[in-house]
Amino acid sequence: MKILSAFVLCALVALSVARSTREVPTDHTNGQPGCKTPEEVEMRVWRNNWDPTRYWVCEVQGQAAAEALCPPEQGFLTEVLGCVPWADWEWVQPVAPPSRP
Fold first, then answer.
1. For residue 22, which phi and psi values (nearest 5 degrees)?
2. Would you say residue 57 has pLDDT above 80?
3. Which residues 6+ apart lie within 8 Å of 92 measured at CB?
4. Measured between alpha carbons, how far is 84 from 75 in angstroms, rounded to an integer?
5. Dist. CA 81–CA 16, nearest whole Å
6. 45-47 sheet: strands from edge to edge
């Protein structure tokens, strides 16, 4: 009984943590934000989940994100919200934006 109780407690904690973090895309979207929230416009640039040489730009809330291209020999790095040389680039787990188009 103690083992079952411990398992249920661990499962509830894991579920709580999963709900408190932003959703990780499971539908294989390209990461395009909907630009529907102030957070998306404030952050302005968002990773393109399919192509590391491209990223999305939210300039105006309620308008579609524009796609942008990194300079040659560079990739978009979420940690710096910009393009960096390939030597400095590293893959990170994609995170879904707050809204989608």
1. -65, 145
2. yes
3. 77, 78, 79
4. 6
5. 29
6. 45-47, 54-57, 66-69
